[in-house]
């Protein structure tokens, strides 16, 4: 298969040849031979005048929710993630002198992963300046055949869900931008599609090398659990940051590991095993403290439903003395519990507090999910197994 970047610098090179371009990219913006977008765009005749980095930075070294400063050096380098919400969009002067903006970001198929929203904010800013946006599409590592977790309530849109869509949305970054371009009349947006990708393909089916798109997304296995694992950010559980298996490993000093593993296996659905364990995160929550918890081992990725599994984990952890919901500022919001932003509905938190079953929790927002499914195929740029 061929990514949008490879198509852009190949058959579509006329779109950038001789033009002054900006590049919104990160470490995973590479060809199948691991050449970075900046290098291959120059090789295709583009003049790269400015680099823009999403959360974690162009180099991908910053941790989550850590503000990134603008860079120095001969090439203008700008951060699109600072300490305030306004920092998420480029300042108008940063776009001066650009003929086009190339966006090449590897996404992981979850509403909370902020790169798609950075791309959308960039597209909006470029539209206001009449600058063409070329979106180099890449695979959704989870495939595009399954969705989970209802679209959020309108009042709970945030940088972990700028527009309403399912938690595991089943779209590529290009499909998200194409969908929003249609809704918002962003006529400056052109998606450079992949070749050879279909909706049933998971990352392991693509043959592409995996490059960390962010510090705590080390492997495709991480992406597999992330639509559920990120819910842990709304709690005082360590989500395994500061270990080698973030989001697969989680827990806290006050967790009963055996009870958590048992509950997760009985209520979390198929395609996984939960192994009781202890671990010591090296930074962030419970840094340097031995925690009890589990590691989620995915045994069948196509049967595994991460959103369900981690709702089951939250349901089990809610019973432990010491558990609490995160109330500190989260992704620029300080007046809404973080877990409400993540699930998209405060009723999920309230249901967990009241002891609701996993099936009852999954039913919350079913009308929003139904409405999304009605228009689902209209957002697709790539076919499913049935060719449609």
The biggest sheet, with number of strands, parallel, antiparallel or mixed sense and barrel status, is:
6 strands, parallel
Q: In the CATH scheme, what's the topology name of the largest domain?
A: Rossmann fold
Structural class: alpha/beta
Order of helices and strands: HEHEEEHEHEHEHEEHHHHH
Domain tally: 2
The number of E-state strands comes to: 9
Distance between the first and last residues' Cα: 19 Å
Spatially, the strands of the biggest sheet line up as 3-2-1-4-5-6
Radius of gyration: 20 Å
Mean pLDDT: 95
Percent of residues in beta strands: 5-15%
Number of helical runs? Answer: 11
Low-confidence stretches: none
Query: What's the overall geometry?
Result: globular
CATH-derived architecture of the largest domain: 3-Layer(aba) Sandwich
Description:
This protein is of the alpha/beta class and 388 residues long. It folds into 2 domains: 4-209, 3-Layer(aba) Sandwich (Rossmann fold); 220-369, Aspartate Aminotransferase, domain 1. Helices cover 26% and strands 13% of the residues. The protein has helices at residues 4-8, 37-43, 115-129, 173-184, 220-229, 257-267, 306-317, 338-343, 346-354, 358-362, 366-374; strands spanning 20-25, 47-53, 76-79, 100-104, 132-136, 189-192, 249-252, 272-279, 291-298. Helix 4 (173-184) links the parallel strand 5 and strand 6 (189-192). The chain is globular. The mean pLDDT is 95.
